Amino acid sequence: VLTSLTLTAQEAFNGIWRTEGSDYLKTILASDYAVLQCFNTSFKEYDVINEEIFNEEGTSFTTKLYNSDNGYKVTIEYTLITRDSISTKYTGDVHGTYALTRLY
């Protein structure tokens, strides 16, 4: 049963997400088994920033983000709250917890 919940949880991250106050949309690509890719896109800034996934556990995963344009570095822990909401905890150059809402 635990394996089934983990598989469902990973796939539930799949989508395009937004947070209030940001020009970037976050895209998370996930299969039944794993989060495959995570990146941020700004159509205002004409920019894409990739995140490196380094840990996955049940209903959460962690990434490292580095923006070479400004030297910004953060670690982001994602936790699935509901099918349409994720909590993100930032540490590094920014500290704080932010909510993501599913767009698609």
Present the secondary structure layout.
Layout: H1 2-12, E1 15-18, E2 24-30, E3 35-42, E4 47-57, E5 60-67, E6 72-82, E7 85-92, E8 96-102
Antiparallel strand pairs: 1-2, 1-8, 2-3, 3-4, 4-5, 5-6, 6-7, 7-8
Average pLDDT for all residues: 92
User: Total strand count, please?
Assistant: 8
Strand order of the largest sheet: 1-2-3-4-5-6-7-8
Rg result: 13 Å
Give the overall silhouette: globular
Spans where pLDDT lies below 50 across 5 or more residues: 1-7
**What share of residues is helical?**
10-25%
Q: How many helices? A: 1
Main beta sheet: strand number and arrangement?
8 strands, antiparallel, barrel
Structural class: mainly beta
Fraction of residues in β-strands: over 45%
What is the N-to-C order of secondary-structure elements (H for helix, E for strand)? HEEEEEEEE
Distance from first to last alpha carbon:
28 Å
Describe it:
Mean pLDDT is 92; it is low at 1-7. With 104 residues, the protein is mainly beta. It has one helix spanning 2-12; strands spanning 15-18, 24-30, 35-42, 47-57, 60-67, 72-82, 85-92, 96-102. Helices cover 11% and strands 62% of the residues. Strands 1-2-3-4-5-6-7-8 form an eight-stranded antiparallel barrel. The N and C termini lie far apart (28 Å).
List keywords for this structure.
8 strands; 104 residues; globular
What would you say about this model in short?
This protein is mainly beta and 104 residues long. Helix content is 11%, strand content 62%.
